[in-house]
From TrEMBL:
It holds the Pfam family Cytotoxic. InterPro entries: ColE3_ribonuclease_sf, Colicin_E3_ribonuclease. It comes from the Bacteria. One of its GO terms (molecular function) is RNA binding. This is Colicin E3-like ribonuclease domain-containing protein. The lineage of its organism: Bacteria, Pseudomonadati, Pseudomonadota, Gammaproteobacteria, Lysobacterales. It comes from Dyella choica. Residues 28-47 are annotated as: Disordered. Residues 5-46 form the Colicin E3-like ribonuclease domain.
Length: 47
């Protein structure tokens, strides 16, 4: 099982990070991998 899911957000130019349940964990910088935005409560993707 993969602990995190990563998806490129071409609109904002960053990487969206979600946990293994699909809950949003924040946005990451595409170059450094550092977190640029906090998680959004209630945001979830279907995995």
């Amino acid at each position: 099982m993969v602990p995190f899911c990563y998806e490129w957000d071409c609109t904002h130019g960053d990487i969206e990070e979600c946990d293994s349940n699909g809950r949003h964990c924040g946005s990451l910088d595409g170059d450094t991998g550092g977190q640029t935005k906090p998680s959004v409560p209630g945001r979830k993707i279907k995995i």
